[in-house]
DNA sequence: GGAACGCTTCGGCCCCGGCCGAAGCGTCGG
DNA sequence: CCGACGCTTCGGCCGGGGCCGAAGCGTTCC
């Protein structure tokens, strides 16, 4: 491949996020939900035709995926790679100190800040607490990036969390937007989150990425990680539609 | 901070790489070397004024760092975060295995990675090895920044390395971009590099910042620092100037 | 001192692409 | 069946920004 060709490709990819409207759309979708085209247009403060053009472009580039339902067009980030791309850029933007303060502020309060899924893994205060408890117990090693220790591998197996073979080391640190601290992501994070859902440790709340820790979940967190998690009073999640 | 503000910031960051010329520049710098403005202009196939504008913009944004030396302007990626940003974007662009892998390989294997000058001092694997050997022998103290010990002062004098009086403590740690570890810079680093050149320990290679360790240099490194440096098989370094 | 060289500033050209209003199409609900 | 609604296409406006040549400035070399 020609060097100028790869330069042009890189530029094309960067150009996807080099527009304030498209950036606002992608940042909004970073919450993992599927938004309708109209919601995104209002959120980004542009007219519907403008949003349509941007969304077409983002979908064509493979950054967003869409599902059509009746007269609605639902959009979400196309996959973990797309989410990581947006996150990486957002992190560089503000430097280490101020990642995406708006998202953080918007979600600091409410159950989304406390316990939610971020794409495919646990996030919020819960995600950070689990990650730190695992690190403190020697299941994770955070000295050079984030890595699973041998003890961590055993722990996952002993607790019935199955990770695709050969992907045991697929651990990634994801910066939490509300906590501003890293939490467990990657294949292991996804497997752990899936197990927590199937084992009934946490439940999804309707129409939201927020999750609730069940009584069984509180017991499991305490027994397995020494974590004390209080079920907290919650108000219902807002619609993202607020202009 | 407003959500639209962070969107604009993200867009501004992405816009840095959203131009084929700037993308070509950043991809070229991914090899870890410092290129001159003119080399980058020729590489990206644009006129000098155009390159100047792009470089100003990239430096102002903190993506690139510059060092001015005489009539030359040397540019390099500002740090690991900048390199990771470019790499991350390039990876999303071309799928997992793209040109980035080869660039990384070039960075590690080229002779520039092995031994070169960085501004006025030794860098690359050689620079890092010398620095670490000096630290291990108590000639440098790296506990609070990098400093010359009394033993280090004696050692310099005994080996004929003259540092301007009153500048004995002028030691600076310079982050090596291929090794990503600190190496000796500052007045002492410059004096040591100059001595290594005049004493024939290392030779400059034509049209390049690369240096070659001579047989006499290997002996000196071994006797003075206990360092074993193998003259490595090398292919001729390409000039970055190739259009 | 003079010539070569590398970089920068200035001015002007030109095109890409973001934006919207109006109009059209399919879907949903009464 | 009709109106409300969500999304899309079309056409036209407009600004930002990439590009270069010419000229200028400081450095280096002879």
UniProtKB/TrEMBL annotation, chains A, B:
**CDD domains documented for this protein:** HTH_ARSR
**Pfam families, from UniProt?**
HTH_20
Extract one GO BP annotation from the record. response to lead ion
Domain (HTH arsR-type): give its ranges: 2-97
GO MF term (any one) = lead ion binding
Q: Which organism is it from?
A: Kitasatospora cheerisanensis KCTC 2395
Q: Which SUPFAM superfamilies match?
A: Winged helix' DNA-binding domain (SSF46785)
* Listed name of the protein: ArsR family transcriptional regulator
PROSITE patterns, sorted = HTH_ARSR_2
Show the SMART domains listed in the entry. Answer: HTH_ARSR
